[in-house]
Amino acid sequence: RKEVEQDPGPFNVPEGATVAFNCTYSNSASQSFFWYRQDCRKEPKLLMSVYSSGNEDGRFTAQLNRASQYISLLIRDSKLSDSATYLCVVNGNTGFQKLVFGTGTRLLVSP
Amino acid sequence: GAVVSQHPSWVICKSGTSVKIECRSLDFQATTMFWYRQFPKQSLMLMATSNEGSKATYEQGVEKDKFLINHASLTLSTLTVTSAHPEDSSFYICSARSGQGHNEQFFGPGTRLTVL
To answer: Quick one: which of A24, A75, B4, B39 is 20 to 30 A from B84 by CA?
Structure first.
């Protein structure tokens, strides 16, 4: 079983739509959770950290469910510029400073 | 936010040659640097973790004699791909962590290596 699993997509949505991604992780001892965004042929960039209480940053809302070991990302009012691959990231099994990346979920927002 | 640079951004080389990639933290001191590799349509895979002044810790399946890592200062780490072969062609990305507070890693822009 992969440490971090995501639906690869692609998710094709029109501008203005609301879209949600889920991610599951296998290490119940993980303490840090993140969503990164990666554009084609670019490095990943931190979108937001994910906290137990859930957190929101503008149109983006992240949730963590420790009991079920899944993380979600909700994007409201999608923009064309939101088209990218969204990576679910958790700290690893053997070292809390190590990050383990999911394969990413591709989002395509169309006019 | 913190800035990490990589050089070169892309490189094409012949099979059997060695390639050095530099990773620099420009506005902070990086106690730990990480090297990742990403093949097309796959996730980033951690290759090794390096702490300034000590030997790198390699992930299982990564050959330390083939991928030489040097973290000689708090702002510079290098990855040398020795005797590169076409299967080493990939996107190599470094990240740096300051060691203060949170777990956030700051990523370099990546180096695209093509071995002919």
So the answer is: B4
Angle at A109 between CA A104 and CA A111, to 5 degrees: 170
Q: What region, left, alpha or beta, does residue B60 occupy, with left being phi > 0 and alpha being psi -120 to 50 degrees?
A: beta
Cβ atoms of B9 and B93 closer than 8 Å? no
A81 three-class SS: helix
Question: Which amino acid does the sequence have at B86?
Answer: P
Task: Tell me how close the Cα of B45 comes to any Cα of chain A, in angstroms.
Answer: 7
A54-58, B28-32, B60-64, B109-113: segment of lowest average pLDDT: B28-32
For the CA atoms of B44, A86, B30, B18, the dihedral, rounded to the nearest 10 degrees, stands at 30
CA angle A99, A105, A106 (to 5 degrees): 130
Which of the residues B103, B112, B113, B114 would you substitute to probe the A interface, choosing the one with the greatest number of A C-beta atoms within 10 Å? B103
* Distance to chain A for B15, nearest Cα, Å: 23
Among the partner-chain residues B34, B49, B108, the one whose CB lies closest to the CB of A43 is: B108
Rounded Cα distance, A28 and A42, in Å = 30
Q: Do B91 and A87 touch (CB under 8 A)?
A: no
Give the CA distances from residue A75 to residues A15, A21, A109, B72, in Å, rounded to whole numbers and listed in that order. 11, 9, 11, 42
β-strand partners of A75: A19, A60
Task: Compute the average pLDDT of residues B24-29.
Answer: 90
